[in-house]
Design brief:
Blueprint lengths: L3 H14 E12 L4 E11 L12 E9 L5 E5 L2 H4 L2 H12 L2
Antiparallel strand pairs: 1-2, 2-3, 3-4
Length: 97
């Protein structure tokens, strides 16, 4: 997403599916770029297929401000899309040689 409208639409969809509880973390300054880390948890708003209540899972966002007003976000949406057990299984598969 490169347009302001595209970024806003994406964030609106994310916030429509999840409750985020984040606080600012570390900040890194460069000559033309600044990075801000946000960390905390995310909880999906809708119950799982089995009707179980969703648990908060660790979640983070890295925000980048670049030259000429560039603004980017980096984050993993997997915690919003699936349950912690599936995430752990996927991570275990990645770690297996």
């Amino acid at each position: 997403m490169v347009t302001k409208a595209g970024k806003q639409a994406y964030l609106k969809r994310l916030f429509g599916k999840a409750d985020l509880n984040l606080k600012a973390g570390q900040v890194a300054f460069g000559t033309s770029t600044t990075y801000i880390e946000w960390h905390g948890s995310v909880t999906r708003k809708h119950a799982t297929a089995g009707g179980k209540q969703n648990q908060a899972v660790p979640f983070g966002i890295v925000e980048r401000f670049g030259p000429d007003g560039q603004w980017e976000l980096y984050f993993d949406t997997l915690p919003v899309l699936t349950d912690p057990a599936t995430i752990n299984n996927l991570l275990a598969q990645l770690a297996t040689p």
